[in-house]
Amino acid sequence: MDNSISRKDFIRYSAATSAAMLLNALHSYAGEYQINKIRVAIIGCGSVSNRYIPHLQTSPKVEIVALCDIKYERTLEQKKQYNLNASTYKNIDELLAGVPFDMMVTITDMQAHGDLNKKALLAGKHVWSEKPMANTYAEGNALLELAKSKNLKLWGAPAVVNSPQFAFMNKMIQEGKLGRIASAHGQYGHTGPTWSAFFYEKGGGSMPDLGVYNIATLTALLGPAKSIMAMTSIVNPIRVVDDKGTVKVEAEDNAHLLLDHGKGIISHVMCGFNYFDPHGHEAKGQQLHSIQIFGDKANMRLIGYDWETYGVYVDDSWEKPAALYESETGGYQWQEGATKVAESIVGNTTPKINVEHALHVLEIIESARKSSAEGKKIYLTSSFKWPLF
Ligand SMILES: NC(=O)c1ccc[n+]([C@@H]2O[C@H](COP(=O)([O-])OP(=O)(O)OC[C@H]3O[C@@H](n4cnc5c(N)ncnc54)[C@H](O)[C@@H]3O)[C@@H](O)[C@H]2O)c1
Q1: Fewer Cβ within 10 Å of end Cβ, the chain: N or C?
Q2: pLDDT the model gives residue 1
Q3: d(CA 223, CA 213)
Q4: Ligand 1 centre and the CA of 103: distance in Å?
Q5: Residue 281's domain is classified under what CATH number?
Q6: d(Cα 163, Cα 124) in Å, to the nearest integer?
Q7: Which portions of the chain are predicted below pLDDT 70?
Q8: What Cα–Cα distance (Å) separates residue 245 from each residue in 176, 239, 241, 374?
């Protein structure tokens, strides 16, 4: 086969490529300051894409231009299901070489996030990543350094700090309404995902999938943790899942964490894939509390889950019963993170979600495993600007 091209074709091709590159560069540059729409590519078209895609579609500032999944048929199904005018790709290399875009939304298996996020950053894309943003704290830190060096944005789920209930609790604490805070508790569990094996494989586990919400909430409310002690276990060594049938459980499906936030404040988180909960994975309508904060003047109980909240009870009286505050969602939805950060790029604003906070949560999860394996307290090295707002 003759692969040579004529000089005329070469000049024409080079000119077209340069023009495309220039337009792309101008768009990226404008993405920081001027554009009124951001082009988004979604990688991973599984379960959670059914929550992300419709939410991204609600924003006039977001355009979904590409879908990618190694199970390629899923990109076609989602394109049809949500009536998207998007190009579809079989892997990240094809995606990055394809239609231009500004931000990648990573919602694949947890174990793939670090590599995919790195490739996207190297290709000059902003990144929103589902949790965890990387497999290790060191890998997450390297991603953030890479993003900074290229003047790009990187964020990690969850978006719990966006809820009005979080804002209320944060204000109560910052205004000293609870008095001297001593202790807090968070819990989140159900009987585990049934569709994909990665939740149970190495790099999966109940901490990055479930505990991550409580850890994010409690560190955001009480401040970065200084040290951690934890015990983790595997309660159910075998699972049957849709994609791989019977699999061996390699990551913890039960975890208890004790966090020292300084000034004597200690919090506790428990999470697992073996907790019967009649509200199930969807968790709709839960009226029990999942977060409690205790001070010497008052205590607060967050109703529902910190990612799907229904209000906050405050107990601050010897005579009156606890009162319910902030029972409206105010439009907050747990799947809104990617939309909100995309809009922040368009508007050149700073979202509440903060990448250093997500990195701190990642270090806590990694350190909890180390603490459990070695039977000792682990001192944390990461931190974030606190209070968040
Ligand atoms: N499902 C939920 O309700 C939910 C809620 C919140 C967060 N999450 C998080 O979202 C992420 C995805 O979870 P899910 O439940 O949608 O899983 P899923 O198994 O349903 O979907 C993951 C998809 O990613 C694809 N994928 C895997 N590796 C890939 C790669 N290298 N390149 C391209 N595509 C790849 C898979 O083929 C699959 O279609 C996880 O981090 C999970 O913790 C899920």
Answers
A1: N
A2: 32
A3: 15
A4: 18
A5: 3.30.360.10
A6: 31
A7: 1-34
A8: 52, 8, 5, 32
Cβ atoms of 102 and 345 within 8 Å: the answer is yes
CB 193 within 8 A of CB 356: no
Supply the pLDDT for residue 278.
Answer: 83
Structural domain span for residue 209? 161-379
| Residue that the structure tokens 């560190």 belong to | 219
Residues 351 and 268 in one domain: yes
Which residues are 257's β-sheet partners?
A: 230, 269
Domain count, the chain: 2
- Rounded to the nearest angstrom, the distance between the alpha carbon of 109 and the centre of ligand 1 is 4
Query: Atom 18 (ligand 1): residue with closest C-alpha?
Result: 46
**Boundary of a domain, candidates 107, 124, 156:** 156
Q: Is the CB of 110 under 6 A from ligand 1?
A: yes
- CA gap 258, 150 in Å, rounded: 37
Interior angle at CA 365, CA 52 and CA 134, nearest 5: 50
| Ligand 1 and 212: CB distance under 6 A | no
**Nearest C-alpha neighbor of 305 from the set 190, 223, 221:** 190
Give the pTM.
Answer: 0.92
Whole-number pLDDT of residue 198:
98
